[in-house]
Amino acid sequence: MVVESADPFDPESRTAELPRPGGPIGPVADEFDPLVPPSGSGLRGWFDRFRGLLTGSALPLLPVGLLAAIPMHFFVGRVDDTVIAAPALLDLLGGFGLLLLPLMWLAYFTVSALPLVISLAGVVAVAVYRATLGATPRPAAVWRLVGYRLRALWLWFAVFGVITQALPLLLTADRLGPAVAAPLAVGLTVLSTGVLTFTGVLGCVVLFERGHGRRRAVHLVSLAPLGGLIVASLAVTVLPRVVDAAWGGFASTVVAVATVLLWAIAALVAYCQGRRAEGPVTSRSLYAELSAPELD
């Protein structure tokens, strides 16, 4: 016999529990969700959603790219510039000037993470809002969705930025010898690509899921196909440097902003695919998580 509620004292669980009419139920996965790839769709499903977000949100994401370009162009430089500045600080302030170097490095690592923070938060807010409500959000709506989570996101990205930015300063061909120049360049590129791949998913975890961080991101990374996100992360690592060497800083900034936005879209879709592998999830359920009030 099927009843509305299972008998808690039935040791054999011979009754089935049915939802009450009109009662809340979990999200029902939609195979045509504009944001979440279908279950088991692999890289094909990832690419379909990535392409849809890119074509549908390119223009709405233009203000996000312009905002990220400001710190990208004017503030984010090479960390070894601070080493070049060390003699000038020594001449200017004596021995006390060298004490400013750690502060300069800290400021660099903090500001260098800002374009990634702006791009990922902007992409998440715009994409989820458009997928759920079918309209482009105003800046105030974007801020309401992600503003109070930017501090945690910025902190995580700054910490991982130390890994990708400090190692090229410490491990150089001048110190280790010219024989290791090529393997060192390849190794640092692989490391930076891996860090960007992981932090892309981690950033989405921080934005959507309060109280979760690195372990949760590791779990989702193990569930999602990462081929597309790895390619996007590699583009962020390599293309701006190539363009900077060929055409200079302004062109490098344009390419860097474009690749970072593509990386953010790739990270969002990969995160959604990891969530879908766990169970039903939709754009509307993600919007509800994103718009939930912050609890102290």
TrEMBL record:
Transmembrane segments annotated in the record for this chain: 53-76, 88-107, 113-132, 153-173, 185-208, 220-239, 245-271
Domain of life: Bacteria
Keyword vocabulary terms for this entry: Membrane, Transmembrane, Transmembrane helix
Segments for region (Disordered): 1-23
Protein name: Uncharacterized protein
Protein source organism: Paractinoplanes durhamensis
